Amino acid sequence: MSIWEYANPKRFMDWTAPVMRVAFAVAAACLVVGLIWGFFFTPDETRQGSTVKIIYLHVPSALMAINAWFMMLVTSLVWLVRRHHVSALAARAAGPIGLAMTVIALITGAIWGSPMWGTYWAWDPRLTSFLILFLFYLGYIALWAAIEDADTAADLTSVLCLVGSVFAILSRYAVNFWNQGLHQGASLSLDKEENVADVFYIPLLICIAGFVALFVALVLLRTRTEIRARRTAALIARSQRA
Amino acid sequence: MIALLRRDLALAVRAGGGFGLGLAFFLIVVVLVPFGVGPDRSTLTLIAPGILWVAALLAALLSLDRIFALDFEDGSLALLATAPLPLEGIALIKALAHWITTGLPLTLVAPALGFFLNMAPDAYGYLLVSLALGTPALSMIGSFGAALTVGLRRGGLLLSLLVLPLYVPTLIFGAEAVRRGVDGTGATAPLMLMGAITLGCFALLPFASAAVLRINLR
């Protein structure tokens, strides 16, 4: 029994149905608990006041915006190497979700930036690289939409995802070169003793968990929809031939 | 390979090849800028390198869809794909031909247009060098985009959406090199980084272009 058997569309539909339900439930629970805790039961930060509370939307969505692209990269590679159709469909499903996450991160960042930096937008390296990521998502989704043949579309978007990843990382570091930033450096990392004070950190972690679960659930939902659409198209094609 | 290069150059230069169009477009964009931002000479001096870089990038974009589309339509690309020359080599030559017909003339014309924009005297050399180093990367990245959209009937707009984000690093280092050159803060680092991008593009992107062309020719 290898892991690849789960990629069989029939089996995929079978095991993802309960997983998706669990993921939606976890997402709802975490987001309700995390957001309410974060918004109403954390103290105001000394310098930022209550504006700090937008962190509970900003950080998780920004995290997922990057991880969604990473997931697309992995599934694209799996499609190119092993040619599992579900993998290509999962990559397609993740695109618009990643785009939405990028937009959420940009908008919440702008709302947060206004009181803190005195401006909604600055050409800061982090902000700019997110804008570039947004453009990459747009191109990726547009290419999927433009090609009629499903396998060709999967192949071409996969190659675009690979090349795009290289250039996205390149742009990420090129913008550092181009302008100095307002945005603080990475506040969350795995190897630090304390990242953010615990009062803020625990609800933040719960929100991040909620966003991860939400992302998983939405990707599964959209992938299942794609599989069903594929099946319907196949059935229609068959009935037209008969 | 040389025969293919000659053929592509001849096709581009002769009637209907659109050889002059990119240059004319470059000129028009640069002429339009002072109307947009006003004729103040010090403002123009400030933005001249950036404008020239963006305009060169857009002018290069204009002729991208010609790299593969015409050959794809009349079937010569399918013939080329069965030729003994590997498709990677064909992709490389096509990008090179695109650079010789657009990137190189743009590079040579840019200082003259910089004169219109009242560019700082020190900037001419840096502009020339940075464009000469950067435009090959633009052609190579663009030919990948062109290969990606070759099978689409209305791929033009999509092509620009796909290619322009890929141009970001080249543009940053190119314009930064000129800016730092004028400031006297040292243009070597951005120029070297841009050279690295160009060489990396030439080393790796032909494989991506060829892979994409094979998919489109399937």
TrEMBL record, chain A:
Record keyword Transmembrane helix present: yes
Membrane topology classification: Multi-pass membrane protein
UniProt main location, coarse: membrane
Cellular location(s): Cell inner membrane; Membrane
Pfam families: Cytochrom_C_asm (PF01578)
Any one GO CC term of the record: plasma membrane
Span of domain Cytochrome c assembly protein: 13-183
TM regions (residue ranges): 21-42, 54-81, 93-115, 127-147, 159-179, 199-221
GO MF, one example: heme transmembrane transporter activity
Keywords assigned by UniProt, alphabetized: Cell inner membrane, Cell membrane, Cytochrome c-type biogenesis, Membrane, Transmembrane, Transmembrane helix, Transport
Any GO BP annotation: cytochrome complex assembly
UniProt keyword Cell membrane present: yes
NCBIfam families assigned to the protein according to its UniProt record, in alphabetical order: ccmC (TIGR01191)
Its biological purpose: Required for the export of heme to the periplasm for the biogenesis of c-type cytochromes.
Family classification: Belongs to the CcmC/CycZ/HelC family.
Name of the protein: Heme exporter protein C
Species of provenance: Loktanella salsilacus
UniProtKB/TrEMBL annotation, chain B:
Gene Ontology CC: one annotated term: plasma membrane
Transport is among the record's keywords: yes
First-listed, main subcellular location of the protein, grouped into a coarse class: membrane
Keywords: Cell inner membrane, Cell membrane, Cytochrome c-type biogenesis, Membrane, Transmembrane, Transmembrane helix, Transport
Cellular location(s): Cell inner membrane
Transmembrane segments: 12-37, 43-64, 96-117, 123-150, 157-175, 187-213
Gene Ontology MF term list: heme transmembrane transporter activity
Domain of life the protein comes from: Bacteria
GO BP: any one term: cytochrome c biosynthetic process
Topology in membrane: Multi-pass membrane protein
Pfam families recorded: CcmB
NCBIfam families: ccmB (TIGR01190)
Protein purpose: Required for the export of heme to the periplasm for the biogenesis of c-type cytochromes.
Stated name of the protein: Heme exporter protein B
